[in-house]
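Regression test case RT-17, inverse folding.

Input:
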């Protein structure tokens, strides 16, 4: 029998009889390192619109549009969600590598000199992409990132945001995967999945590896990002949406409407002036003999003279001197002009709904401390001290690391696909607020890496 020569590492063998080599490494490595199965993807049993391939977002497929319309009636929700987006973006993104000191602490080493990465970020207008992605993330917990492949499918050449409100998933396939996304700005105008203006884009699974994506037939695809919430498959539900279902958002929205109607309709009378009929006869001897138009003209003239004395900033602080007539037998005053102050019924809030409780519920659901957005609406509420704001901001920044990681997922996928280096990491520059005695003048900026 001919001899066999097997290498020490077991990767190949040489057969003397046929002068041939046998390789073992490829088969063995694939079987060992490749996943034996795809991740489990539960399939939703459709309850409605079963004849259409589109998965409705909300019962009427108008959920994002309804949320935007509802929330934009409130002065606090939109501005606070915008604040959260800006706080997460902070000083923008940077890329680099991590090293570790002797204590095992990670140290981030920024690197901005990779021309390939810089070219991609510049051409993708990364600031605009992140602004759109972060905004959709906080409004809906769903981000639809569109990536475009090169013609040879070796690299991803572009990253674009698709507005979440325009995107709808196709129903799951037989394996539970989301394969297609329908995009249209006209869902609220009756657009359908097959409407002329509706575009269809393929989608990948979050667990698809770069080599699997290269084998697919498309040259562009949707990379889905979301904040996972319980019992949701197609569209995640932002936690702050409880304001809409609990009624607190409606309650808060009704307050300014009520105030506006109150200010418009209330009769803000400060004085009641009563003029006796006898006074007119006493002052104008022929009053009883005048015609009705003459009496009205005379009374109008007296009222004008009275208003000149009682109103205007130039008359502030003046005194009024009057004479009155008394009955010589009873000593009782004859009625003349009787001026009664009614007070300001609006100044003490007697007829104004207080928005303090509604504002507190809104901020609590939105997850932002009131001191971080300045003076909050409602009677008796302030912005808090500088220390409150500083500590609240630092705590807030430490709690949104998971959200940052989720939003940077598309960039890390592109890093692996384009083979920029597995040690490259993207991150948001984290601002750290400190007291002035702990930070030198040169370090007083919001771009201090942690």
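Golden output:
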């Amino acid at each position: 029998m001919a001899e066999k020569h097997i290498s020490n590492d077991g990767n190949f063998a040489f057969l003397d009889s046929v002068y041939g080599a046998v390789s073992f490494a490829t088969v063995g490595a694939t079987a060992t390192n490749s996943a034996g199965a795809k991740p489990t993807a539960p399939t939703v049993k459709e309850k409605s619109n079963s004849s259409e391939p589109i998965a409705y977002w909300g019962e009427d497929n108008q959920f994002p549009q309804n949320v935007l319309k509802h929330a934009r009636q409130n002065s606090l929700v939109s501005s606070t969600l915008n604040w959260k987006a800006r706080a997460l973006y902070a000083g923008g993104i940077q890329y680099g590598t991590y090293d570790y000191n002797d204590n095992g602490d990670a140290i981030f080493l920024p690197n901005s000199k990779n021309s390939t990465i810089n070219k991609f970020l510049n051409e993708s207008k990364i600031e605009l992409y992140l602004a759109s992605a972060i905004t959709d993330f906080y409004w809906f917990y769903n981000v639809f990132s569109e990536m475009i492949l090169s013609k040879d499918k070796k690299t991803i050449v572009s990253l674009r945001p698709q507005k979440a409100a325009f995107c709808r998933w196709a129903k799951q396939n037989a394996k539970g995967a989301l394969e297609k996304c329908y995009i249209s700005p006209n869902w609220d105008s009756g657009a359908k999945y097959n409407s002329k203006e509706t575009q269809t884009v393929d989608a990948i699974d979050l667990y698809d590896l770069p080599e699997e994506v290269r084998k697919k037939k498309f040259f562009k695809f949707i990379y889905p990002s979301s904040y996972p919430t319980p019992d949701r498959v197609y569209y995640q539900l932002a936690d702050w949406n409880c304001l809409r279902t609990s009624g607190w958002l409606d309650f808060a929205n009704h307050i300014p409407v009520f105030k506006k109607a109150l200010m418009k309709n209330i009769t803000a009378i400060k004085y009641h002036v009563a003029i006796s009929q006898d006074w007119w006869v006493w002052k104008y001897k022929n009053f009883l003999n005048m015609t009705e138009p003459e009496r009205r003209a005379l009374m109008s003239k007296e009222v004008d003279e009275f208003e000149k004395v009682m109103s205007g900033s130039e008359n502030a602080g003046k005194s009024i001197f009057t004479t009155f007539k008394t009955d010589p037998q009873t000593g009782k005053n004859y009625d003349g002009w009787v001026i009664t102050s009614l007070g300001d019924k609006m100044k003490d809030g007697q007829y104004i709904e207080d928005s303090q409780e509604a504002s507190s519920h809104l901020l609590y659901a939105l997850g932002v401390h009131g001191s971080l957005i300045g003076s909050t609406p409602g009677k008796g509420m302030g912005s808090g001290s500088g220390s409150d704001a500083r500590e609240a901001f630092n705590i807030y920044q430490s709690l949104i690391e998971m959200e940052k990681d989720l939003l940077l997922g598309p960039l890390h996928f592109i890093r692996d696909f384009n083979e920029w280096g597995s040690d490259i990491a993207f991150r948001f520059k984290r601002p750290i607020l400190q007291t002035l005695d702990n930070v030198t003048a040169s370090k007083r900026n919001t771009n201090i890496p942690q």
